[in-house]
Specification:
Shape of chain A: globular
Bound molecules: flavin-adenine dinucleotide, FE2/S2 (inorganic) cluster
Shape of chain B: globular
Number of helices of chain B: 5
Structural class of chain B: alpha+beta
CATH topology of the largest domain in chain B: Ubiquitin-like (UB roll)
Number of domains of chain B: 2
Order of helices and strands of chain B: EEHEEEHHHH
Number of helices of chain A: 11
Largest interface: A-B, 27 and 32 residues
CATH superfamily of the largest domain in chain B: Beta-grasp domain
Helix content of chain A: 25-40%
Largest sheet of chain B: 5 strands, mixed
Oligomer: heterodimer
Strand order of the largest sheet of chain A: 4-5-8-6-7
Helix content of chain B: 25-40%
CATH class of the largest domain in chain A: Alpha Beta
Radius of gyration of chain A: 19 Å
Number of strands of chain B: 5
CATH class of the largest domain in chain B: Alpha Beta
Strand order of the largest sheet of chain B: 2-1-5-3-4
Number of strands of chain A: 14
Distance between the termini of chain A: 44 Å
Distance between the termini of chain B: 52 Å
CATH architecture of the largest domain in chain B: Roll
CATH topology of the largest domain in chain A: Uridine Diphospho-n-acetylenolpyruvylglucosamine Reductase, domain 3
Number of domains of chain A: 3
């Protein structure tokens, strides 16, 4: 094995190393990257790590949530104030995976992985990129759209804490109790006078990266969350998606079952 | 390049040099000679390599060994106390929870992680604790029964 490992106390230094060293890859929990290292992936020459405490810091106030990108699924599950995200964190692998898997790593996990990123997309999260010359913030949609391009290091993720019971998440798997997602759906469903106002819906495994269901969001605007109110959204549920055939499911099947599970999520019927 | 790695392995301070980028599974087996830790896939998918790092379950095959330096690591080699088997090991024997035995080290450590935190687990807790561990032989039910039985016996002993 010929990879070098470089560990930095400051995240900014790690970010510089990722962008300047040849063949450098950032290692967070390692649940995906270490596979590639074990397989001697020739594109990986240097593993960059950081022990910066800010990287794993989790801050929750009544209005806002800030997650260090190095926060693990286990850390999310340990935080009572983040109970609305517990179903999401529990969807990511078994306990040993959750102990290592980070929120930041999930943003870069190839489909059908990326369940946590789906939730963050519905929550309208912004990400902060660490760089040798300072930090930059951008919407998660933008990061996901350009993620293949980049050697950028995400230092933290932030979003408004969803009021009441407005956030919902479901993952569909064929293997129980724990299989990879056939698809996942997250929705932020704010109501004004019992009508939807500004819904955000995101899908996992329905495209190359987690993506927004913009047609369904538009069709829900001003509607009630009942069978008649959601019907137009279900009719356009799969618009703009481009699922793939993989070992878990075919693209056709993903498109077929998407409205069924979106319906259950919107009506609050528990998934099986 | 070689990197120094120090661990508290099953309560004993140990140190060795390992290849840069080496995973914990290979280092435990090759540098520290702990062959109770098994490798199945080296991809994080089978769970047989599960060990406890700082008391938490981790897949040693996808854990960078040097990230554990200075930490405690527990493996099946540390479960037995002299001639006495750990209650989990006895329960696995009593319930025929091992056939070929390849998944057993990972199952035992995943179960230990659960019982260390939650001595009175429900069946659902047990299923979740081992949901990342694949067994191709037993059909899982004997393993679940063994873990629940070990929990009951452990609870009786400490009562
Ligand atoms: C058995 C098993 C089951 C799994 N099940 C699921 C599942 O159900 N759902 C799911 O979503 N995922 C699943 N995963 C995939 C994976 O564990 C998660 O997606 C996890 O969140 C990845 O995070 P990590 O910290 O381990 O990433 P790493 O392996 O450390 O990194 C993955 C990639 O992201 C990059 N990266 C990591 N952190 C950052 C950062 N802060 N900034 C920029 N780039 C970064 C790395 O360079 C690398 O390219 C599973 C994995 C395994 C092994
Ligand atoms: S060898 Fe580690 S999960 Fe299979
Ligand atoms: S006993 Fe054979 S794999 Fe579990």
């Amino acid at each position: 094995m010929t990879v070098a490992v470089k560990t930095f106390a400051r995240l900014a230094d790690a970010a510089s190393a990722v962008s300047t060293e040849r063949g450098a890859r950032f290692l967070a929990g390692g649940t995906l990257l270490m596979r590639a290292v074990n397989e001697a992936d020739p594109s990986i020459e240097t593993i960059v790590r950081s022990t910066d405490p800010a990287f794993v810091h989790v801050a929750v106030s009544s209005a806002r949530v800030e997650l260090g990108a190095g926060a693990t699924m286990a850390a999310i599950l340990a935080e009572r104030e983040l109970s609305f995200l517990h179903r999401v964190a529990r969807a990511v692998g078994g306990p040993a995976v959750r102990e290592a898997a980070t929120v930041g790593g999930n943003l870069f996990a190839p489909s059908p992985y990326g369940d946590f990123a789906v939730a963050l997309l519905a929550l309208d999260a912004t990400v902060t990129l660490a760089g040798g010359y300072g930090q930059r913030e951008l919407p998660l949609d933008e990061l996901l759209a350009g993620r293949e391009r980049g050697a950028s290091l995400v230092s933290k993720i932030a979003f408004r804490r969803p009021p009441g019971e407005t956030f919902r998440f479901a993952t569909v798997t064929r293997v129980h109790p724990k299989g990879l997602s056939v698809l996942s759906i997250a929705a932020l469903l704010p109501l004004t006078n019992a009508r939807i106002a500004g819904a955000r819906i995101a899908y996992g495994a329905m495209g190359h990266t987690p993506l927004r269901a913009k047609a369904a969001e538009r069709a829900l605007e001003g509607r009630a969350l009942d069978a008649a109110g959601i019907a137009p959204a279900l009719a356009v549920a799969a618009d703009g998606t481009s699922p793939r055939d993989d070992a878990i499911a075919s693209a056709w099947w993903r498109r077929e079952i998407l409205p069924v599970h979106l319906r259950r999520l919107l009506l609050g019927v528990d998934q099986v | 390049m070689k990197t120094p790695i120090q661990l508290r392995l099953n309560g004993e301070e140990v140190a060795a040099f390992a290849d840069d980028g080496a995973n914990l599974l290979d280092v435990l087996r090759e540098s520290f000679g702990d062959l109770t830790v098994k490798g199945g896939c080296w991809q994080g998918t089978c769970g047989t390599c599960t060990v406890l790092v700082g008391g938490n379950p981790r897949l040693s095959c996808v854990t960078l060994a040097e990230s554990c330096s200075g930490n405690s690591v527990e493996t099946v080699a540390g479960l037995r106390r002299g001639a006495d088997l750990h209650p989990l090991q006895s329960a696995f024997m009593e319930h025929f929870a091992a056939q070929c035995g390849y998944c057993t080290p990972g199952m035992l450590m995943a179960a230990k992680a659960l019982l260390d935190r939650n001595p009175n687990p429900t069946r659902e807790d047990v299923v979740d604790a081992i949901c990342g561990n694949i067994c191709r032989c037993t059909g899982y039910e004997p393993i679940i029964a063994a873990i629940l039985d070990a929990a009951r016996k452990g609870a009786r002993r400490s009562a």
